[in-house]
Specification:
By secondary structure, this protein is α+β, with helices and mostly antiparallel strands. It contains 4 helices and 3 strands. It has one domain: Arc Repressor Mutant, subunit A (Orthogonal Bundle), CATH 1.10.10. A hairpin with a 5-residue loop joins strand 2 and strand 3. The two termini are 34 Å apart.
């Protein structure tokens, strides 16, 4: 994942975050791989640029785990593409991931804003 300013401002995702972002994107409806990439790019304010070398292994892994299902369909441009959709187990996984993500955000936030002796931040 590379930010819009290239390698210098590269944004790395924590392990497991990619699955959560893909599942969240699929909450909005079935998408093909390129559609997932475009949605993440747009919804991140163009800060995230997902490479296909990361996307498709994640989608295949999530399909094996039963979190997503795929089927071949025609795109709007009349090309054949594999569309992915979230499953009920995928929705449960997403809820679990979101809960763990919020806990991580809270923990990191408390570390980054430690309370000093005397109650000052």
């Amino acid at each position: 994942m590379i930010g819009r300013n290239g390698y210098k401002n590269r944004i790395e995702l924590l392990q497991g975050t990619l699955d959560m972002l893909i599942l969240q994107t699929l909450q909005w409806g079935p998408r093909h791989g390129y559609g997932i990439v475009q949605a993440l790019h747009a919804d991140s304010g163009e800060a995230l640029q997902l490479e296909t070398g990361s996307l498709y292994p994640a989608l295949h892994r999530m399909e094996r785990q039963g979190w997503v299902r795929s089927e071949w369909k025609q795109t709007e441009s009349n090309q054949r593409a594999k569309y992915y959709r979230i499953t009920a187990p995928g929705k449960k996984q997403l809820a679990s991931d979101l809960s763990r993500w919020q806990q991580m955000v809270d923990v990191i936030g408390s570390i980054m804003r430690p309370v000093r002796e005397g109650g000052e931040a």
